[in-house]
Structures are given as C-alpha cells and as structure tokens.
Amino acid sequence: MQASENLLKWAMRFYPPLFFQRIWVQQFHKDFRGVDVKINRSLLNKNYNSSIFGGTIFSATDPFYAILFDQIFQRKGYTNLVWLKSAEIQYIKPAKKNLFFTIKLSEEEIAKAEKHLIQEGKYVAGFNIELFDKDGMLYVKVKNEVYIRNLNFNRNDSIKPPSSLQ
After folding, report:
1. Which one, of 102, 101, 100, 97, lies nearest residue 41 by Cα?
2. What mean pLDDT is predicted for residues 76-88?
3. Of 28, 33, 123, 141, which cross-links 148 as Cys (Cβ 3.0–4.6 Å)?
4. Domain span at 89
5. Residue 165 lies in a domain
6. What whole-number distance in Å separates Cα of residue 35 and Cα of residue 148?
7. Helices then strands (H, E): number in the chain?
8. Is 126 a member of any domain?
9. From what superkingdom does this record's organism come (predicted)?
10. Could you tell me the CA-to-CA distances from 6 to 9, 12, 24 in Å, in that order?
11. For residue 166, pLDDT beyond 70
C-alpha cells in the first residue's frame, strides 16, 4: 500500500506494537529517503534496572528499512515483498534516557537495490543503525539485514525494469 509520508507517520505512531512500547515516528523524510524515530522511556517499557527494555529498542529498529524500501519501490512501479531477514544488536550501555535514531537511504543504495531487483529478482543487504540520547551519547548499535523480492521478476523474461519505467 502506498501512503504519503505524513499518513504513514501517523499510522505508525498509533500502530499498537509501537505505540505501547513508546516508539514514536517523528517524521518520514521526503520521498521516503529516511526516517527519524524516538523511543520514549516510560513505565510501559522500563525493565528491572529502570532502563529501556532491550526488546523495545530491538522492536523500534525492526520495521523501518523495510518500510522505506517498500514505499520507494512501489513508487517506481515494483510489486515487491520486503522484510527484515535478520538483525544483530549490541547494547553499549543501559538506556535510562529517551533514545533517538535516524535512518537515511542514499541514491546509491537505492540504485544498487534496483539493479539487483531487475537483474536477479531479489536484493539482500545489511544496514547499520545507531541509537543516541539527546546529548549524542551512543547507547545501542544495530545491524539489520533487509530482504527485497521483486514479485514480477521472471528469469525467462528479458531483463527489463517495471512497465512504468519503460
């Protein structure tokens, strides 16, 4: 489903798995080239040590690369399947403050993914995310591996972009 940046921001803000973990989408960047996210430390996501529960942090980083790639390629005419294939997380220190992260996709990353979708029908790549407090102190490092499948790819067809790009 294609959505505007603003509509998707509000939908994600009130999506129960994010809302109840206090994960707040601040904004999607123009043309879904990025996203800014805040994790609010609250009674709903504090652990035994009064820091943000690790599962909340992990959940916050889960959907966004897939959403960005999905929205970008839908606008290019692709019918695709995008999901988080794997993830690694390294907790640097307990998060006793709100955390923030920004994801940005470069034109080079998008072009590389599109090339693979056209030539191979799929693309798998790893992307790093770092989470900071408002003062710039690093708390968490995450690596997400994203899987994108071009559902219209057929090895028997000549290699060509979606019909909307011809």
Report:
1. 97
2. 95
3. 123
4. 5-151
5. no
6. 19
7. 5, 6
8. yes
9. Bacteria
10. 5, 10, 13
11. no
Residue among 126, 148, 152 at smallest CA distance from 67:
148
Residue 108, both tokens: 């080079």
Q: Is 49 a member of any domain?
A: yes
Residue 102 belongs to domain with CATH number: 3.10.129.10
With respect to residue 166, please indicate whether it lies within any of the assigned structural domains. no
What pLDDT digit, counting tens, does each position of 112-151 carry? 999 999 999 999 999 999 999 999 999 999 999 999 999 9
What pTM, to 2 d.p., does this model score? Answer: 0.89
Instruction: Work out whether the CA dihedral 134, 135, 140, 143 comes out positive or negative.
Output: positive
What is the spatial distance between Cα 127 and Cα 145, in angstroms, rounded to a whole number?
6
Number of separate domains in the chain: 1
Q: What is the pLDDT of residues 59-78, one digit of tens each?
A: 999 999 999 999 999 999 99
Phi, psi of 57 (to 5 degrees): -65, -45
